[in-house]
């Protein structure tokens, strides 16, 4: 009797100890998840978890040498040693996870807007009056507080802007903005590569910048069709994934082609600003020049990184400089360049087969020089043409409005925008900007002499009053300028027709 009481007591103590261990294990797991979320930049999810644990998550810290990824890696090696294969950690759900969570009363939060519930829309509603329009406006304001920093071109021609910020005004978003360097996933989780490749990934990642290029759709004048198509191809599939399945599965590659200076890069920057994807801004010619020999590996690592940071957009500027027709002009080409092209094609094929949200956005001024194999992979092609007369008017009045005032210096204009637009037929957006700049420079030039003369005198500078820029002044500047792509326009439309029929 005595004996059995003793053993019952021991069993009870063992149960209590086990219960305590279970509680501790569960608590540790929550803390590990919390730290993991913080480390990955999922501030909103981390804050929610902390709230649900009544602030417990914040009261503890994970001990040195341990993190969630490491725990999983250890499990993987244990599994491999035991069964000679890696464990399957996750599998596709039969029933959407969201439903299961709702049923079990759980809360599911997503780190980015992907998977956001669709609003109910009456098909007869116009986009302006419907919920969709409102949603879009909200998302536009998301990055309003992001500062504008010019993209820095790295030694490797690789810039990556990650735009996974929380909503403006939202506390978690604010934390995220203050801890921008934590927004991208750490490379420690970027496994499956040999030493050389992971070194390349490190190098590429050093050029990752987290600022938005700050170009909004409304900053792009005209190009309404191009804007709509780009949104359909890149922005909406990430925002409304439910709509883009089956036959509507998202495009994997899009080519923006047209004369230089018409806004192709601006469109890409708008995607980077308005869309919450990791944005890889790749100047194609730099890949070739700086990475001759190694560029094939660079391409492989680039796509691996894009997958790792998905949803991602890879913007390949000046595509013709890397994907010109193979062996075209020289009758043979550098072997490493050919290997790189093949790698790019292989990687793009990989995207088509996968369901990952990695998207290639390419731009070219010379589409007819492009390799046919790459053209086939850029399923959607959009002509970004010269601005229409209305767009030319809008551009001129945007850059030279009747009154501008910078640092107390006023510049006035009296311009007949319609006449000027007529005279600038065939000018690209960038040509028009240059003409406007030159026209604005004329009155400024006239005061330089006065300013210089005053440098040697003690008297204060006279009040600066610039002469008004008139239509006649502007027309004179136009007469001395030349549109850069007027002769090419026919060629783009001919090429467009040729490719439409394919
Ligand atoms: P590209 O088509 O060669 O990529 P960009 O997008 O780099 O041309 O445009 C060059 C510059 O010309 C821009 O920075 C901008 O100042 C001006 N620009 C060209 N097109 C437009 C446009 N549609 N709206 C506003 N600015 C434009």
Keywords:
502 residues, alpha/beta, seven-stranded mixed beta sheet, three-stranded mixed beta sheet, 19 helices, 9% strand, elongated, binds adenosine-5'-diphosphate
In short:
By secondary structure, the protein is an alpha/beta fold. The chain has helices spanning 2-40, 43-52, 56-59, 68-83, 97-103, 131-141, 171-178, 195-206, 224-239, 264-274, 284-290, 295-308, 335-353, 372-377, 389-399, 417-423, 429-454, 471-479, 489-500, and strands at residues 158-162, 208-209, 253-257, 278-283, 312-317, 358-364, 380-383, 403-406, 409-414, 469-470.
Provide a descriptive summary of the structure in words.
The structure is a single chain. This protein is of the alpha/beta class and 502 residues long. The chain is 49% helix and 9% strand. It contains 19 helices and 10 strands. The protein has helices at 2-40, 43-52, 56-59, 68-83, 97-103, 131-141, 171-178, 195-206, 224-239, 264-274, 284-290, 295-308, 335-353, 372-377, 389-399, 417-423, 429-454, 471-479, 489-500; strands at residues 158-162, 208-209, 253-257, 278-283, 312-317, 358-364, 380-383, 403-406, 409-414, 469-470. A 7-stranded mixed β-sheet has the order 2-1-4-5-6-3-7, with helices on both faces. Strands 8-9-10 form a 3-stranded mixed β-sheet. Helix 15 (389-399) packs across helix 16 (417-423). The longest helix is centred in the first third of the chain and has 39 residues, at 2-40. The chain is elongated, with a radius of gyration of 29 Å. Adenosine-5'-diphosphate binds next to helix 10 and helix 17.
């Amino acid at each position: 009797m005595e004996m059995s009481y003793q053993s019952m007591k021991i069993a009870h103590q063992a149960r209590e100890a086990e219960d305590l261990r279970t509680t501790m294990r569960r608590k540790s797991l929550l803390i590990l998840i919390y730290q993991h979320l913080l480390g990955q930049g999922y501030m909103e999810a981390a804050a929610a978890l902390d709230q649900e644990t009544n602030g417990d998550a914040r009261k503890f810290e994970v001990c040195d040498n341990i993190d969630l990824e490491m725990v999983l890696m250890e499990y993987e090696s244990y599994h491999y040693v035991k069964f000679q294969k890696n464990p399957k950690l996750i599998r596709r759900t039969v029933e959407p996870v969201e439903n299961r969570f709702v049923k079990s009363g759980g809360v599911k939060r997503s780190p980015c807007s992907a998977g956001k519930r669709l609003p109910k829309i009456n098909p007869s509603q116009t986009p302006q009056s419907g919920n969709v329009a409102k949603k879009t406006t909200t998302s536009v304001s998301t990055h309003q507080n992001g500062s504008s920093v010019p993209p820095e071109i790295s030694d490797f021609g690789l810039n990556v802007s990650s735009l996974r910020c929380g909503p403006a005004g939202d506390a978690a978003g604010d934390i995220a903005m203050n801890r921008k360097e934590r927004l991208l996933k750490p490379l420690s989780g970027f496994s499956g590569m040999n030493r050389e490749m992971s070194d390349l990934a490190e190098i590429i990642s050093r050029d990752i910048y987290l600022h938005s290029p700050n170009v909004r759709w409304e900053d792009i004048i005209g190009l309404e069709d191009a804007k709509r198509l780009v949104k359909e191809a890149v922005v909406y599939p990430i925002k409304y994934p439910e709509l883009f399945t089956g036959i509507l599965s998202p495009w994997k590659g899009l080519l923006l082609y047209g004369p230089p200076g018409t806004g192709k890069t601006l469109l890409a920057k708008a995607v980077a600003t308005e869309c919450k994807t990791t944005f890889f801004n790749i100047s194609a010619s730099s890949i070739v020049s700086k990475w001759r020999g190694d560029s094939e590996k660079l391409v492989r690592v680039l796509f691996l990184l894009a997958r790792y940071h998905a949803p991602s957009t890879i913007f390949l500027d000046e595509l013709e400089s890397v994907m010109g027709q193979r062996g075209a002009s020289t009758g043979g080409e550098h072997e490493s360049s050919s290997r790189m092209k093949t790698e790019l094609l292989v990687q793009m094929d990989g995207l088509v087969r996968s369901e990952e949200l990695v998207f290639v956005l390419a731009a070219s001024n010379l589409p007819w020089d492009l390799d046919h194999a790459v053209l086939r992979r850029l399923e959607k092609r959009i002509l970004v043409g010269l601005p229409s007369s209305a767009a030319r008017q809008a551009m001129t009045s945007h850059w030279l409005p009747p009154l501008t005032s910078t640092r107390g210096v006023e510049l006035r204009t009296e311009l007949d925008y319609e006449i000027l637009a007529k005279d600038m037929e065939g000018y690209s957006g960038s040509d028009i900007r240059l003409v406007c700049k030159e026209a604005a420079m004329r009155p400024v030039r006239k005061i330089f002499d006065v300013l210089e003369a005053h440098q040697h005198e003690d008297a204060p500078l006279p009040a600066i009053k610039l002469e008004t820029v008139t239509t006649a002044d502007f027309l004179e500047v136009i007469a001395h300028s030349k549109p850069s792509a007027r002769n090419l326009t026919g060629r783009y439309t001919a090429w467009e027709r040729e490719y439409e029929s394919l």
